[in-house]
Amino acid sequence: MVSSVLTMAQVFIVNCFGLVFIASYLWFSFLNWYFNVGIVTTRRIIDIDFSNILYKQITVARLDRIEDITSKSGGYFEAFFDYGTIFIQTAGTEQFIEFPDISYPSDAIREINKLLTRKHGP
Predict the structure, then answer these.
(1) Domain parsing of the chain, residue ranges
(2) For a Cys-Cys bond, which of 42, 55, 71, 120 suits 51, CB 3.0-4.6 Å?
(3) In this predicted structure, what is the pLDDT of residue 3?
(4) What is the predicted pLDDT for the residue at 117?
(5) Which residues of the chain, if any, have pLDDT below 50?
């Protein structure tokens, strides 16, 4: 059916464009996954987000500025594979920090709470 409308060269070009589109989508998805980093230290929590190749956002919050930590997991796959998103609310006008789709979010919150109690006392 398609071969009666398009020549083989045109079908080849359409297939090449499709493969380039799929490969570029996979490449940019990998870069987005690899370069979006959340770092928790004994003094700060750092969130590095790359939206695209030319734009990045770095959010840093000191541990004494953290007000609230929330974990959200919804759906069958998130419950089965134990991953979710952590939201960290800071004091003042600073933005919240978001760690999307991390594995074992309850363990990560437990470690951050240990750092907070060590920093502020019981």
Answers:
(1) 1-35, 37-120
(2) 55
(3) 64
(4) 86
(5) none
Place of tokens 């920090």: 97
User: What is the 3-state secondary structure of the chain?
Assistant: CHHHHCCHHHHHHHHHHHHHHHHHHHHHHHHHHHHCEEEECCCEEEEEEECCCCCEEEEEEEHHHEEEEEEECCCHHHHHHCEEEEEEEECCCCCCEEEEEEECHHHHHHHHHHHHHHHHCC
Which CATH number applies to 37-120?
2.30.29.30
Amino acid residing at 106: S
pLDDT at 2: 60
Backbone phi, psi, residue 98, to 5°: -125, 125
Query: C-alpha distances in angstroms, 47 versus 7, 19, 50?
Result: 51, 33, 10
